[in-house]
Write a structure and sequence with these properties.
mainly alpha; Rhopdopsin 7-helix transmembrane proteins
Length: 212
Amino acid sequence: MTGNLKRLIEVKRRQKEDKERSEKLHPHTHGFTPRSKLCMLHLPMHVSYAALAGNAALILVIALDNALHAPMYLFLCLLSLTDLALSSTTVPKMLAILWLHAGEISFGGCLAQMFCVHSIYALESSILLVMAFDRYVAICNPLRYTTILNHAVIGRIGFVGIFHSVAIVSPFIFLLRRLPYCVHHVMIHTYCEHMGIARLACTNITVNIVYG
């Protein structure tokens, strides 16, 4: 009798683990019909291919045409590069989840993806700000436009933007590594982001909320 009870408990435990593992490996297909699942499998691939082709074509055109080496087009090229970098950071894992049901990722890998995603977002915001300043100079001081925003200045602006984004996002890693985490490790997104990871913690995350 005791042996049967132990076997029953073991079976229940394994069923629970299998259910949790299934939910972890398929976090984004629950509640979808087979047809909608098929759309989920193919739509991200087509969207990523379109974004990749569009941004690559834009960068290629600007690089090959000397007439487009003006500051406005160079900033547009930088914006396309950030878009390509963001797609390269998030899309492969999303496709792995939808196609291969590879829903697991190590904590270190999750932090690395989070760092890249937020750094690229911060860099993209800096580029948009610089593009607004570019239009301001072109409208208010057109005669000195090419003097103020020459290639050396654009290079320094790019370096400052990268340094600024890395400096802002780096504390996220230390803020997340100090937290104790619960048994629940299922993310609600197809990629890792700061608050999504912080909400898995079993402690107060006020500091993360304020900084993030």
